[in-house]
Amino acid sequence: MRKPIIAGNWKMHKTIAEATGLAAELAAAAAALDDVEVIVAPPFTALAGVVGALPADSALRVAAQNCYCEDKGAFTGEIAPSMLVDAGCSHVILGHSERRKIFGENDALINRKVHAALAAGLNVILCIGETLEEREQERMYDVLKTQVSEGLKGLAGEQLARVVIAYEPVWAIGTGRTATSDQAEEAHSFVRGLVGGLFGQSEAEAMRILYGGSVKPENIDGLMARENIDGALVGGASLQAEDFIRIMNFAR
Ligand code: PEP
Fold it and tell me: Which end of the chain is more exposed for a tag (fewer CB within 10 A), N or C?
């Protein structure tokens, strides 16, 4: 049985005070749920504040939205995985489509980040997903195959157990256009098959694969009902407590 994950990506939103207030509200709601992992990803500036505002045994886990692939050195503006551990993070999101598109991150760099994050003890949420153009040109499966095989390249079984994949079709992120549950299920099942081919059947069965792209209170139940959808990575709808609490309480 794969334990579902509901993760909120706050992107470049929220002051420290706003972030700690929202996290406290979400932590109280998450404490009532023992059958789902709830994760929030505040901006870097709010990470330590959010962790500090949560009770030591909080059910809410804290993720960073990115990190660099080196542990220290002359990398102005970058954050090391060990610094995220020091700030109290348990997870890091890597390979988000905004990092790929706006900041030019490629699969090779993302793979180095995955290795560095795992070596520091973090869990990784690896984002993959095709653009609308790639889908329309029927290149979606090739793109997903490359992103999965290159992103996870060189990982051993123990490390893989600390990776979660987030399938986020780029055309559905922040657009209000969600993939139908059929489209998402088809992609998730394909991705699980890829993991099976690369690492083995039991690793594929254990891998949590989240859906991301305009997830909202209105569509979460339909997505979570599908066999290969193990949770959601939520952007816009994670910024308000009411919506995100409804999403973490998806029908089950
Ligand atoms: C995201 O940023 O990962 C995301 C899925 O955003 P949204 O839910 O706003 O589409």
Answer: N
Cα 11 to middle of ligand 1, angstroms: 9
Pocket test for ligand 1, best of 6, 13, 97, 173 (most atoms within 8 A of CB): 173
Phi, psi of 104 (to 5 degrees): 70, 25
Helix, strand, coil abundance in the chain, percent, nearest 5: 45, 15, 40
User: Which residue matches tokens 């079984």?
Assistant: 157
Query: Can you count the helices (H) and strands (E) in the chain?
Result: 12, 8
Q: Whose CA is nearest to atom 7 of ligand 1?
A: 235
Residues near 64 by beta carbon (within 8 Å), at least 6 away in sequence = 41, 44, 47, 79, 84, 87, 89, 91, 92, 93
CA–CA gap between residue 215 and residue 95 (Å, rounded): 19
- Give the residue from 81, 50, 61 showing the smallest Cα distance to 8: 61
Q: Is the distance from CB of 98 to CB of 105 less than 8 angstroms?
A: no
CATH of the domain at 121: 3.20.20.70
Q: What is the pTM of this model?
A: 0.97
Overall number of domains in the chain: 1
ipTM over 0.90: yes
Structure confidence by residue, pLDDT tens digits, 12-70: 999 999 999 999 999 999 999 999 999 999 999 999 999 999 998 999 999 999 999 99
Query: Which two three-digit tokens encode residue 201?
Result: 């059947």
Give me 118's structure tokens: 């795992």
Residue whose tokens read 């500036």: 45
Residue 164: CB atoms within 10 A of its CB come to 23
- Nearest atom, ligand 1, residue 168 CA: 5
Residue 130: domain span: 5-248
